[in-house]
Amino acid sequence: MFRAINKNISSSFKIIVSVTKRYKHIEHKVKVNEFDINIVESGKGENSVLLMPGAVGSSWTDFKPQIEQLPELLPNYTVIAWDPPGYGKSIPPKRNFDLDFFQNDARQAVQLMKTLNRPKFSILGWSDGGVTALIIAGRYPENVDKLVIWGANAYVSDEDVNILKGVRDVKKWSARMREPMEKVYGAERFAEIWNEWVDAILNIHEKRKGDLCMKEIREIRARTFILHGKKDPMLAKEHVPYLKQHLRGFKYHEFPDGKHNIHLRYAEEYNKLIANFLLEKC
């Protein structure tokens, strides 16, 4: 009897080890054009989903629950999170905040996935990453399977400008929001890069009438899932209705008490919604 019990324990242990190995993440750098891009890969599925962080964000600051939990919900997917050039561990170079920085990120992301031999992929795009995701889906429709966005906007409104001016000074942020970024960049550099980003968005508002991807969203053919925190303080209320008006074939889910980081605050619910969407047959 004891031999049988030991055998069962041994089998269970092997299963646990097997599952752990399957979902363990691998972090490494990939040469994409002139950049050494830092990525985190989790899962071993044939399908691919790319996680695109928000402003000055990185794989771990923005997507830890998704890196750790999504592979179990999506066993036929490999989850890939990236640090865009100049963010996180994809430094050097110093981040370039010219008028085309969203478009540049879109181009580099597509090339990254081609370099990984995963030219067809789905995208989870949060905030700035959502803007880049919309550009990718509009400009490179042949490369995008499904699209998930939240906290994203197609243009910068006057209300957005006021919101940004209100959050420019990172010393006024809560420690919970500020400290993860300070661990990545250091307190001084984080304050600098955040101000550079704010200036870049204000520059787009002034010189391009706020246009981020208004043309691209009309070209999107991928099945799209819009999620939204109804109490999001970082997004002017007009943006979600605008996206609904101009995107075709979309699905929508709202978190009534959600703010900007619904994927972190409601990670378990969010991850299940995402997994169900990606597994749906269109």
UniProtKB/TrEMBL annotation:
InterPro entries: AB_hydrolase_1, AB_hydrolase_fold. GO terms for molecular function: serine hydrolase activity. Residues 48-167 form the AB hydrolase-1 domain. It comes from the Eukaryota. Coiled coil: none annotated. PANTHER family: VALACYCLOVIR HYDROLASE. This is AB hydrolase-1 domain-containing protein. It comes from Glossina morsitans morsitans.
